TrEMBL record:
Any coiled-coil regions, as ranges: none
Record InterPro entries: Competence_DNA_uptake (IPR052159), RibonucZ/Hydroxyglut_hydro (IPR036866)
Domain of life: Bacteria
Protein name: Putative recombination protein with metallo-hydrolase domain
Keywords noted in UniProt: Hydrolase
Organism this protein belongs to: Klebsiella pneumoniae
UniProt-recorded Gene Ontology molecular function terms: hydrolase activity
SUPFAM superfamilies the UniProt entry points to: Metallo-hydrolase/oxidoreductase (SSF56281)
Gene, per the UniProt record: ycaI_2
Signal peptide positions (record): none
Amino acid sequence: MSAGNGQGLNFQALWPLPGSTAKGNNHSCVVRIDDGRSSILLTGDIERQAEQAMISRYWRHLTSTLIQVPHHGSNTSSSALLVRRVDGAAALASASRYNAWRMPSYKVVQRYRQRGYRWFATPQQGQITVVFSAEGWQIHSLRDQVLPRWYHQWFGAPADNG
C-alpha cells in the first residue's frame, strides 16, 4: 500500500502482508518513507523470517538511504540479504545502554559496516536525530553535541565513560 501526504512524501507499508499470520516480532509494521531524494526504511522488530518473505515480495522497493536496524540489532535480524538489498548509507539502531541482551549484536554491527553503512546506535550516541532537507540529509546525536562532563576530562575518563 502506498500513500502520499501532499508534501512530497511517499509512504509504503511493506509488512505485514495482507492476510499475514505472522505473530510476535514478525508482525511488526515495516514502512518505507521516500521524499524523492532520500528514503528511510522503518523495520520495527522483524526477524529473518519476515525479512526474507518481505524481500521476496518487494525486492525492488527496499533500497533506502537509511535503515532503522530491525529488532534493535539482534542476532535474529539484519540478515546479510536484507543489509545488501537495502544498500543504504547509514544504519540506525535503538537499544538501551548495557541492556541484558547485549544488543546491538557485534555481528550485526559488522555486517552493516562491511557493506559501507555509517553506524549509529543509541547506546553510544544517545538520542539520534535525522534531518532531511533540500540539500540532503544529516544525522545528529546528543552525545556528539554535548561536551563531556568536566570531571571526565579531569580524571582522564573516556567521554562515554565506557
